Amino acid sequence: MMHRHIERIAQTSEEKAKNQSQVVLRLVRHMRPYKGYLFLAVLAILVNASAQATGPFLIGRAVDQFIAQGDARGLALTMLALFGVYLAGMLAMRFQIYLIASTGQRVLADLRAQIMQKVQALSLQFIEDKEAGDLMSRLVNDIDAINSFFSQALTQSIGALFALIGIVVAMLALNWRLALAALIIVPVMVLTTGQFARMARRAFRKTRETIGDVSADLQEELGGVKVAQAFSRTDRNIRDFARRNRANRDANVSANTVTSAFAPAMDVLSTIDTAIVAGYGGFLAINAAVSVGVVISFLQYVQNFFRPIQTVSQTWTIAQSAFAAAERVFELIDTPPQITDPPDAVELPPIRGHVAFENVTFGYNPAQPVLHDICLEAQPGQTIAIVGPTGAGKTTLVNLIPRFYDVDAGRITVDGHDVRRVTRKSLRSQMGFVLQEPFLFSGTVLDNIRYGKLEASEEEVIAAAKIANAHSFIERLPQGYQTPVGERGGLLSQGQRQLISIARAVLADPRILILDEATASVDTRTEALIQKALGHLLEGRTSFVIAHRLSTVRNADVVIVLDQGRVVERGTHDELIERGELYAELYRRQFYLPEEQAGVAG
Questions:
Q1: For residue 309, with 0-12 CB atoms within 10 Å meaning exposed, 13-18 middle and 19 or more buried, which class applies?
Q2: Are β-strands 417-418 and 431-435 bridged in parallel, bridged antiparallel, or unpaired?
Q3: Residue 371 belongs to what H/E stretch?
């Protein structure tokens, strides 16, 4: 994950490109709930387009009918009408920008909600396979690019499009010969725009991918800065980041090179078109086929004709970047969740806590199973300890119970219900988790304990903290239960975070409890506090306890020993010590006991 292939990203093939029109249509579909806003916006756009089409006509009429004939009063009235037309157009444009931008912000809010809902619904395997920084880039950078499109590019582009249509209709109505002369450049303009569009799509897709790579690397490096300093890897990390940063810089330079050439190309076409209209219009005027005022009107129309195109060229960078970003956002939204509730899933009733693994086989890659034909049973209220060498599959086994992953073969039942046939919410709401690395959310101590039961009163929170042996240290904090814990609980020690997570589990009052190395990263004194808290927590609950410190599983009702994904031993601590096999060897190595003393120590 650390060393993604920048060159591969920077050389994204055209075959990988998605149809841009589909992305645009999908963005438009997201605007459907706000048809009222869009209808008013279209009315405002039509008013503005009409104003831009009427202005040059009034100028030509003033030249032919009033200036040429010395009619000051008529000229003044025409200029007053011209002022009114442009004022109405300006007000309509302001209203249109407000309406479209407001609609865009509502669409963005909907997209963010969809992304959040999707991320929460995706399986753990998807989250683990993706770099957190890349996901964050889609949530932040890509959404920000779409935001720029709605707030700037879309409002200006739609207005420009309608203005363009109004100008073409006005030119055809005024003089079709001059109109055709003015529009002769359009096929060249379409071909030029299409070529730039294809080049820009490829260029901006690279920019979105490389900024995702930069974000992923930055997230990882910031999280691991302590390790990098400890191993003197800071220089190497700086070089790696610089390489990714250069790839993103080069992609953006390439994209800007493409888009910056578009406006000058349109300027050249505009100049050629103006020369065509001036030359042909002058010829017609000399031969009395048209009036001078009509030629002046057409010259004004030509300038106005290319002004919307220049507006589009100025927003082209924003639009192309937004479409590339939208592809990545829609790709995430369209990702099918791997773990879903079946259509006939039922609510799991209140459980007693009987858990059974029936010939369970599982692998993150089905072709390479991690667990093989697991059979075990936990009676209500029993404590099942799961031990074994690193990589034996202990954490994988307990992650199957709440259905974080689905088994490949066999089944897991809770009180006789196959976990795949009940709703995930009803299953997980009756389970509690205490992990090796407790996760605390930014907020207060009270908020984090209450996370286990959101409707709990402050008295219930305090009672849970007392059971978890956390109350005494919480009271010593500067603001007690109202003390902020910082990002990920960074203002508290590892042991304090663990005690708070235990209090959270106590408050939730689950019937099934999963403890994954809950005491692995704390000192001996804190371990004693945690062990005492866990003793209260385990009472009356079916518990699955993973522990490398074998001293913590002495009192388990059953000890399951895993090795290479298979159950190789089961029994009580004393029985397994007496048997003298893998468990006894692990115990002897952990406590540095001679082989002949392992049984005595038990």
A1: buried
A2: unpaired
A3: strand 371-378
Q: What are phi and psi of 364, to 5 degrees?
A: -60, -35
Q: What are phi and psi of 512, to 5 degrees?
A: -120, 130
| Spatial distance between the Cα atoms of 489 and 474, rounded to a whole number of angstroms | 13
Q: Does some domain include residue 396?
A: no
Q: Is the model's pLDDT at 6 over the cut of 50?
A: no
Write the CB contacts of 307 (distance below 8 Å, at least 6 apart in sequence).
160, 163
Report the CATH number that the domain containing residue 459 is assigned in CATH. Answer: 3.40.50.300
The CATH code of the domain that includes 304 is 1.20.1560.10
> By C-alpha distance, which of 340, 350, 395, 352 is closest to 370?
395
CA-based nearest residue to 448, from 528, 506, 376, 399: 506
Helical segments of 378-493, H only: 394-399, 424-428, 445-450, 458-467, 471-476
- What is the pLDDT at residue 14? 42
pLDDT digits (tens, 9 = 90+) for 459-476: 998 988 888 888 888 898
Distance CA 119, CA 138 (A): 11
Who contacts 161 (Cβ-Cβ below 8 Å, separation ≥6)?
A: 308
Question: What is the SS3 string spanning 409-437?
Answer: EEEEEECCEEHHHECHHHHHCCEEEEECC
* Count of domains for the chain: 2
Summarised one tens digit per residue, pLDDT across range 490-523 is: 788 888 888 888 888 888 888 898 888 766 555 6
Per-residue pLDDT at 404 exceeds 70:
yes
Distance CA 425, CA 184 (A): 64
For the chain, give the number of residues. Answer: 602
Distance of CA 524 to the CA centre of its chain: 41
* Cα atoms found within 13 Å of the Cα of residue 61, Cβ hemisphere only: 14
- Which residues, including other chains, have CB under 8 Å from residue 38's CB and lie 6 or more apart? 31, 99, 100, 103
Domain presence at residue 169: yes
Q: Is residue 571 part of a domain?
A: no
State the DSSP string of 26-58: HHHHTTGGGHHHHHHHHHHHHHHHHHHHHHHHH
pLDDT at 10: 39
- Side chain identity, residue 266: M
Please tell me the distance from the alpha carbon of residue 582 to that of residue 576, in angstroms, as a whole number: 8
- The CA distances from residue 130 to 125, 133, 227, 332, in Å, are 9, 9, 22, 11
Can you tell me whether residue 369 is helix, strand or coil? coil
b/e map of 94-121 (b: 16 or more CB within 10 Å)? ebbbebbbebbebbbeebeeebeebbee
Domain end among 300, 333, 366? 333
Residue type at 194 in one-letter notation = G
User: At what angle are helices 154-174 and 72-121 packed, to 10 degrees?
Assistant: 140
Distance CA 220, CA 212 (A): 12
Distance CA 497, CA 489 (A): 7
Domain that holds residue 135: 20-333
Residue with the two structure tokens 């300038």: 303
Query: Which residues, at least 6 apart from 409, have a Cβ–Cβ distance to it below 8 Å?
Result: 359, 360, 361, 362
